[in-house]
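REVIEWER CHECKLIST
Item 1: Sequence provided? yes
Item 2: Single chain? yes
Item 3: Sequence as submitted:
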Amino acid sequence: MKTYSVYVLKSEKTDTSYIGHTSNLEKRFAEHNNGKSLSTRKKRPWRLIYKEEFKTRTEAISREKYFKTVEGRLELKSLGIL
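Item 4: Structure as written out by the authors:
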């Protein structure tokens, strides 16, 4: 059964974070660190600091969008993730 992940990366170079979703976290993480993602290329290397899994892409996208809001970032901060 296919699952979808929402993930948070932390740049070891700039100490900034990146939030995304994917159906293949291992492959996507490698793409971020190999410079295949334009939006994260200049801030490599990245480390995975958090992930959540969902049964549907719709759920994952919804959670990703939430984490990108002020409330979502505050939740991640209160959990000690950001």
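Item 5: Key structural point noted by reviewer: The chain has a mean pLDDT of 97.
Item 6: Recommendation: ____
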